[in-house]
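User: Design a sequence. Structure:
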């Protein structure tokens, strides 16, 4: 008797993709087998696939933004049932390093990545603490945004917004469009900036208070105008550009906070006047990945409708077209490109 098999988009080396079949995973005692419905493509996947990230080991199966259904559970998993909709967190934190113990599990020093059971396949298998149950009526495309939205939730919390403040979001890809929505849950108003008209329209539809194309209008002058010369209380740079950080810093209000949310590659340096930070009492922060508390908050936002992620999906592609999807993300085509893997119709 042959065991049932599953598809995976196998990546033997950077830049190489092939569909491979392998036996379906058997969950261990504490593990959950998930049949994947949707997996979003993240710019991180594009960078990993290019081979430019030295920490990413090959061969591997990429994909870390998945929703799906419980297909099997190990003997020690008591709270999940077969067929239950879930989302998966693909990074297993060690739980015992200083980062984990000091409340920053997102910066875990000994994380385990799902090298051979990534989200671009029919199934994945993960420890039960990495599986987040969903309400039955949850939109599964929307739910597949848990991981990127969790990073955004963390980034916004670090900006410590107060109701009535104004935040500037620079870059309106799927990440920027989530930042502006989360900023609004904190009671802030949002200026949304991007060079692509379709993205500005999307920002307006999702509740941006002001949108601006810095190629057409001077952003600094616009910020002054809108804030009566005060500046923005917070800013998030959702584009990997040191120049944008330098240009945005002087737009902050006294006490302003700025989050360098996107990694910047190739490596670059900042030239900023430290007196701006000193006299303005500015706080310059970064944020990286997310902790379980951010994941749950992201799911709450998705499930209660406070953040609309479903409408960020611009393309649904079959699993075998992953190569095309990665290319589209690289070229900033559309918004969220999502692989549609196993969908019950
Ligand atoms: Zn991601
Ligand atoms: Zn750890």
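Assistant: Done.
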């Amino acid at each position: 008797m042959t065991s049932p098999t599953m598809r995976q988009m196998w990546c033997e080396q950077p830049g190489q993709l092939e569909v491979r079949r392998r036996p379906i995973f058997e969950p261990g005692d504490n593990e959950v087998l998930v049949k994947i419905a949707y997996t979003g493509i993240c710019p991180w996947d594009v960078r990993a696939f290019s081979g430019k990230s030295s920490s990413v080991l090959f061969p591997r199966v990429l994909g870390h933004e998945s929703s799906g259904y419980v297909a099997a559970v190990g003997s020690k998993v008591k709270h999940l049932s077969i067929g239950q909709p879930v989302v998966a967190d693909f990074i297993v934190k060690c739980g015992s390093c200083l980062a984990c113990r000091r409340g920053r599990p997102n910066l875990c020093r000994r994380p385990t990545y799902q090298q051979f059971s990534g989200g671009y396949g029919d199934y994945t298998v993960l420890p039960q603490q990495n599986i987040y149950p969903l309400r039955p009526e949850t939109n599964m495309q929307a739910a597949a945004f848990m991981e990127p939205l969790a990073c955004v939730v963390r980034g916004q919390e670090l900006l410590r917004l107060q109701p009535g403040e104004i935040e500037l979001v620079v870059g309106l890809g799927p990440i920027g469009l989530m930042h502006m929505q989360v900023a609004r849950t904190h009671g802030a108003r949002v200026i949304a900036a991007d060079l692509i008209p379709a993205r500005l329209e999307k920002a307006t539809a999702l509740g941006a208070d002001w949108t601006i194309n810095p190629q057409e209008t001077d952003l600094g002058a616009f910020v002054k105008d809108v804030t009566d010369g005060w500046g923005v209380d917070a800013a998030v740079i959702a584009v990997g550009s040191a120049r944008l950080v330098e240009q945005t810093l002087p737009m902050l209000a006294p006490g302003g906070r700025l989050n360098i949310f996107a990694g910047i590659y190739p490596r670059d340096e900042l030239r900023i006047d430290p007196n701006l930070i000193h006299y303005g009492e500015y706080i310059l922060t970064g944020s990286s990945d997310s902790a379980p508390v951010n994941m749950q908050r992201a799911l709450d936002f998705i499930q209660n409708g406070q953040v609309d992620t479903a409408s960020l999906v611009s393309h649904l592609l079959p699993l075998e077209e992953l190569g095309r999807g990665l290319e589209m993300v690289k070229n900033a085509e559309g918004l969220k490109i999502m692989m549609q893997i196993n969908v019950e119709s």
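The chain has eleven helices and 17 strands. Residues 93-95, 97, 99-100, 108-110 surround zinc ion (ligand 2) (CB under 6 Å).
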